[in-house]
Description:
- The complex is a heterodimer.
- Chain A is mainly β.
- Chain A folds into 2 domains: 1-48; 49-129, CATH 2.40.50.840.
- Helix content of chain A is 9%, strand content 43%.
- Chain A is built from 2 helices and 8 strands.
- A 5-stranded antiparallel β-sheet of chain A has the order 6-5-4-7-8.
- By secondary structure, chain B is of the alpha/beta class.
- Chain B folds into 2 domains: 4-118 and 207-224, Thiolase/Chalcone synthase (Peroxisomal Thiolase, Chain A, domain 1); 129-204 and 233-381, 3-Layer(aba) Sandwich (Peroxisomal Thiolase, Chain A, domain 1).
- Chain B has a 9-stranded mixed β-sheet with strand order 3-2-4-7-1-8-11-10-9, sandwiched between helices. A two-stranded antiparallel ribbon of chain B has the order 5-6.
- In chain B, α4 (85-98) crosses α14 (332-347) and α7 packs across α11.
- Chain B is globular.
- Chain B starts with a strand and ends with a strand.
Amino acid sequence: MPSPRYRREMPQRYRLEAGKCKSCGKIFFPPRLICNKCGSEDFEQVILPEKGKIVTFTIIRVAPTQFEAEVPYAIAIVELENGVRITTQVVDCDTEKLEIGNDVKLVFRKVQKEGKTGILLYGYKAVLA
Amino acid sequence: MRDVYVIGCGMTKFGEIWESSFRDLFVEAGLKAIKDAGVDRLDSMYVGTMTSGLFVGQEHVGALMADYLGVAPIPAVRVESACCSGGMAVRMGFLDIASGNSDIVLAGGVEKMNDGADVTYALSTAADQEYECYHGVTFPGLYAMIARAHMNKYGTTRDQLAQVAVKNHFNGSMNPNAQFPRKVTLEQVKNAVLVADPLTVLDSSPVSDGGACVILASEEVARKLQKPMIKIIGTGVATDSLALDQREDITALNAVKVSAERAMKMAGVKPSDIDLAEVHDCFTIAEICILEELGFAERGKGGLFTEQGHTALTGKIPINTSGGLKSKGHPVGATGVAQVVEIYEQLTGKSGERQIKNAKIGLAQNMGGSGASSVTHIFSLM
């Protein structure tokens, strides 16, 4: 993943910055330029809550090359307290015991590495709350 | 719009085809289709391939294939919509003829997945790179999350998922072009190696090489060639969010539903009029969701519908008589076209042991990503 592209996503990955439609109130993560609900192009920045619940999840046992060393790892869709859903790894837990509905909290972690010699790439992961 | 007919088809065997290159797979299928149709020219060509750039480092596929098929300088262009690139190529061919621009069009698809690329990564590019793949999501992982949500919401069982694979492998055991033409048992599917919980390797379509082509023509050309009159009576395309987490209902594949509604409206048919269907069973859960979206099964009952045998060769709506992606194989760009090949052969009575008697109307549904794009075609023996 080229570095300029990584830097561009930092506000979302580091600070959970989302866009709230000023017209209808729908919150988008990642932010968008136009609201798919009401068509408004007028947004304000909001920060996502860190707490949420697991909507669904899986345990990845066959991974792309850059995640091979981490298998098996859990991936979940998490619904945050304001209703926004995000996809994230769930870590520091016994993956065999995960269940839909588990309370989780987002934390800041290393996610992957840019190639063999590139920069470390950070972002959010979930842990059981 | 002018009426459009399918007048011939051809495909390679699907599988690990070490001897054939990316271009050879397409040309082999194309030559078979041209001979089957008996045409002496093509007016244009559409080539579906998902990610040949990652699989074999080759882009600019339209011109390459026109050159090697010996039909340059006809117009030829690549069509891409992830795993429904092939179905979209058929759609483009349909529009080309319907508009009056062309009379004879080759619509084909090809993928060469076994040439050493990181297949899991290449396929994952059909998902949201920044907000799904960045976190280590894979395609089996996305469908596994759909499966778990479906099981949780509707009570779909592990056995019902496995039954999709058992049924499709049974059908595929009678298809000489299938990659895995062998039967499997419920126990084998359930106890196979996990790829992404709860899906095992036998819930998943394989990594395949292959090509498939169909020849489409105007009514005038079809009549002159005295071919069986297989008309495309409906076509529909729809889209949805690329990222699964952006959808209100994770168990719903809205693009599939809307693409089918559009095709059925155009054709003037309802689900009960369809005699057989090829659907995008990239994973067992996908077929269950699709049965619901196409209106064959009630919402939440796709698993039960399968378990009750309604989708078997002898059931009320045979699904994936070819063996589906599951048994026949899933060279992603070729898949949507190979579905049309199966429907064409069924409607013209060429399906051998797996022939559905008196089939008159067939449907082919091809899907991209975790359901972000879908194309549905309906064919009728006139």
